[in-house]
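[Discussion] Sanity-checking designs against the backbone

I'm trying to build intuition for which residues belong where. Below is a structure token string of 207 positions. I'd appreciate it if someone posts a full sequence so I can compare it with mine line by line.
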């Protein structure tokens, strides 16, 4: 009902405001959310709430939480669909929509991790971010530009590793030295698939 929606909005907005203020450090926010049973999962579910204000506040809190997230935190976000939900909002919303600001801000922090940065490339979100960094909205432009910078930084070591592995697999196939030719070819194909997708997205578009 209207009262419960108002209560959810008020509670979440207070948490979102606190998470963005100097009164609560990112580390303290992360610890509080991490240590509260079911908090991450609840915030991810609220990304599908009917109230735009609830969704916006949940995006802000999750985005700030991601700034101090551990690998296990990110696994929780992915497994509950939170990461994908944030990225879908970023794709679907147009400029002028308050949810777009919050989604791009959250994406900026998510992309400090290589797995999330790779997902941005796989889903083609980097193209959307590239468009948004040219926005007349200074805040939106800053968020998008910072997200792209985080993608580059996060994926740089991954790309180097995949390039090195790809070259090793090619040499092995050319020499026929692999213990199992079919297995080596599959290994090469898998490495090439990751390498090609990420290289094309990051090197051609972002660099």
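Best answer:
Here's mine. Compare freely.
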């Amino acid at each position: 009902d209207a009262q419960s929606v108002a209560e959810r909005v008020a509670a979440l907005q207070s948490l979102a405001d606190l998470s963005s203020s100097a009164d609560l450090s990112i580390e303290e926010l992360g610890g509080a959310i991490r240590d509260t049973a079911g908090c991450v999962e609840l915030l991810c579910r609220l990304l599908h709430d009917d109230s735009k204000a609830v969704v916006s506040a949940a995006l802000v809190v999750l985005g700030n939480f991601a700034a101090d997230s551990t690998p296990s935190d990110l696994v929780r976000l992915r497994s509950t669909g939170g990461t994908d939900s944030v990225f879908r909002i970023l794709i679907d919303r147009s400029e002028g929509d308050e949810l777009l600001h919050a989604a791009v801000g959250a994406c900026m922090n998510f992309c400090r991790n290589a797995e999330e940065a790779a997902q941005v490339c796989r889903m083609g979100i980097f193209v959307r971010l590239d468009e948004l960094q040219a926005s007349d909205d200074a805040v939106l432009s800053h968020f998008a530009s910072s997200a792209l910078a985080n993608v580059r930084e996060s994926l740089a070591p991954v790309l180097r590793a995949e390039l090195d592995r790809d070259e090793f697999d090619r040499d092995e196939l050319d020499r026929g030295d692999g213990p199992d030719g079919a297995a080596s070819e599959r290994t090469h194909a898998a490495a090439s698939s990751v390498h090609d997708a990420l290289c094309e997205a990051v090197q051609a578009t972002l660099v």
